[in-house]
């Protein structure tokens, strides 16, 4: 496996507060990696250390197999939060892109790039008159200057209406073609729809990381709706796991019928046995509460 980003024991402290706690990131090349966590989990701090805006307290980072060296690091396209990042509101969209490309010393076809992100015909419009969705798109255009192999987008779905979220999702998938994309977000359900891989951060710790497909194709899960206090012991004594929300994972030779027999024989009153499909939000909350 080739990694776009690989960190070992990456840690960032602010005085006594550990914002990022010894995380081993593995972002495969070509992945759409959803970097997920609630407010204050440590996402932005991690990203800032990768971008060289913060020095890690300890640990190492490799980008595309090379140790991170800020004087010679590969181009990383980045979009900060607060829709799309900061712009010159009195300048046009195209001029905003030109200012950025000038600073990077990279030529840009501003109207062409704006077309790619769905801002055709907006090149000469002043950014001060842009909606949240347009600013997000402009922020993504700016992150694509120089066609970077790695793009990091902070909350690209924030502040968008349902239609805006939908079209942003398809734009992200389209733009991720041929590069690695990291999407930082606390909108778990939304990112689940576009990501190929996820990393879940809670209190600075990486509580899970890996391909989403592996989670979706895992053992079947059934929610047991029951108020019986004997349920946890009965389930666990049969060697099964029970989540705080009442989900039982059925490994190997277990079926819903077999689980049902177990509960009947133990005289557990059950209101319903509901087969579950994988839900990232629940998975996240289970992992966080278990951490
Ligand atoms: N410059 C700083 N000085 C002190 N503490 C900081 C600093 N920057 C971040 N922190 C703390 O580090 C922790 C992680 O913050 P961070 O911004 O990385 O979280 P986040 O996951 O990006 O959250 P959000 O989704 O709200 O942006 C928080 O407790 C935050 O208060």
TrEMBL record:
Keyword Membrane: no
PROSITE patterns to which the protein is assigned, alphabetical: ABC_TRANSPORTER_2
Keywords, alphabetical: ATP-binding, Nucleotide-binding, Transport
Transmembrane segments: none
Family classification: Belongs to the ABC transporter superfamily.
Molecular function via GO: ATP binding
Database matches in InterPro entries: AAA+_ATPase, ABC_transporter-like_ATP-bd
UniProt KW NAD keyword: no
Record-linked Pfam families: ABC_tran (PF00005)
Signal sequence region: none
Coiled-coil segments: none
Domain ABC transporter: start-end pairs: 5-228
Name of protein: ATP-binding cassette domain-containing protein
């Amino acid at each position: 496996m080739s990694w776009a980003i690989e960190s070992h024991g990456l840690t960032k402290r602010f005085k006594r507060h550990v914002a990022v706690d010894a995380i081993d990131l593995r972002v495969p090349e070509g992945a759409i990696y959803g970097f997920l966590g609630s407010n204050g989990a440590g996402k932005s701090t991690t990203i800032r250390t990768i971008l060289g805006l913060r020095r890690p307290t300890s640990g190492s980072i490799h980008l595309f197999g090379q140790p991170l060296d800020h004087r010679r690091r590969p181009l990383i396209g980045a979009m900060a939060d607060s829709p799309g990042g900061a712009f010159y509101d009195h300048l046009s969209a195209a001029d905003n892109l030109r200012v950025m490309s000038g600073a990077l010393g990279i030529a840009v076809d501003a109207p062409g790039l704006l077309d790619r992100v769905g801002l055709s015909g907006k090149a000469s419009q002043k950014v001060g008159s842009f909606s949240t969705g347009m600013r997000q798109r402009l922020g993504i255009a700016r992150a694509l200057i120089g066609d970077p192999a790695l793009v990091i987008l902070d909350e690209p779905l924030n502040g968008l209406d349902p239609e805006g979220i939908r079209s942003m999702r398809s734009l992200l998938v389209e733009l991720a073609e041929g590069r690695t994309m990291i999407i930082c977000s606390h909108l778990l359900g939304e990112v689940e729809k576009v990501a190929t891989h996820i990393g879940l951060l809670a209190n600075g710790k990486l509580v899970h990381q890996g391909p989403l497909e592996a989670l979706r194709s895992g053992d079947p899960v059934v929610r047991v709706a029951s108020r019986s206090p004997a349920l946890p012991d009965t389930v666990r004594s049969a060697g099964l796991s029970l989540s705080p929300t009442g989900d039982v994972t059925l490994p190997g030779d277990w079926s819903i019928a077999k689980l049902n027999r177990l509960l009947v024989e133990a005289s557990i009153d059950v209101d319903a046995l509901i087969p579950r499909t994988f839900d990232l939000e629940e998975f996240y909350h289970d992992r966080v509460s278990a951490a």
